[in-house]
Structures are given as C-alpha cells and as structure tokens.
Design brief:
By secondary structure, the protein is an all-beta fold. The radius of gyration is 14 Å and the shape is globular. Strands 1, 2, 3, 4, 5 and 6 form a 6-stranded antiparallel sheet that branches.
Length: 92
C-alpha cells in the first residue's frame, strides 16, 4: 500500500541482531502514520528497518510511504506486522 500520511510520532533508533546486516546489527525504529482526511482517519504503527530508520521525521510532517502488511502465527496467536518498505519526505 502506498499512500500519503502525516507523521504522528517516531521512536528512537535501536539495534537488533541480523545476520544480513553489516556488523550483525540492524537499525530499527517504529513510526506512527495517519492517513489524511480528518480526525478519525486510519493510523498505523509501522517498523522502519535499515538506513531509513536513521532518518528523523517531525510530528505532522507529510510523507509518502509504501507499507507492507503481513501476518504470522506464534503459539496459537495471530500477529500482524506492518513494515515500511520506503518512506519519502514531502517538501513543503
């Protein structure tokens, strides 16, 4: 899903173990994105991985983001993950 969003919040960058990442550590952060259109539009908490996680976004900044939705089952529970494939700031 690609859409225009307003940034609501972003966590600090932290590092997770990854065999694919150089040095065995992968940058990661969480971001809250809200669809445009009003107070009651959909919001998503998504994960940003890799170098994109180091980019800082301001509250209410407009971005275009491509989100990937997936589900997985673990110990009989189903979980949904949302990962940001790409995120680009909109110049005002």
């Amino acid at each position: 899903m690609k859409n225009l969003f307003k940034v609501q919040a972003q966590s600090e960058v932290f590092f997770v173990s990854s065999q694919k990442a150089e040095g065995g550590q992968l940058p990661k952060c969480n971001i809250v994105l809200k669809e445009l259109g009003g107070k009651f539009e959909n919001s998503y908490v998504a994960t940003i991985l890799g170098d994109q996680a180091r980019i800082r976004f301001e509250k209410d900044e407009l971005v275009i983001a491509a989100l990937r939705f997936s589900t997985r089952e673990y110990n009989g529970q189903v979980y949904q993950d949302i990962v940001v494939n790409e995120i680009v700031k909109i110049n005002k």
